[in-house]
Amino acid sequence: MKVLGIYASPRKSGNTDQLLDKAMEGARSAGAEILTIYARKLKMWGCIECGGCDETGKCVVKDDMQSVYPLLEEADAIILASPIFFYGLTAQVKAVIDRSQAMWSKRMIEKTPEERKTYDGGRGYLIAVAATKGKNLFTAVEIVTKYFYDALDMSYEGGLLLRGLEKKTAVQENPDVLQQAFELGKKVVQS
Fold it and tell me: What's the whole-model pTM score?
């Protein structure tokens, strides 16, 4: 089984990275092959809505996203980890999600409406990390994540939605949260 970790934080080695590292460690301990994408390292544009993928299901924009598509396609499960910025995902990973329009187009081309009612591409999970504790803090993020996975022909299976973690060392001061991430990684493989 291949598990892809998508690191969405612009801050290297912060809470989000540490939690996803721990989840990937859990997945590896359960026998998974690990793949990774660091959104902060990608040299790419957001979707330019050119329609180039409408007929082929392939993006025509040549940038680092071309190396991401094969990873998205070969993963059996994906764990997306993002800090929350203004009740949303980071701009870096939102560009990756928007560029997945090509994969949605591919799904529309290759599957009938009836076939689109099921997911054949695997399962998707979310680790979302927020400093604040607002009631609707994760609502928009979960909707975007669900439809990102839908475009990839994957089901959205939930994950860890964590409030009140602001300073860079917050997860180190909460070992139970790191253990939850490790267990999530194992669960991804064992499900």
Answer: 0.96
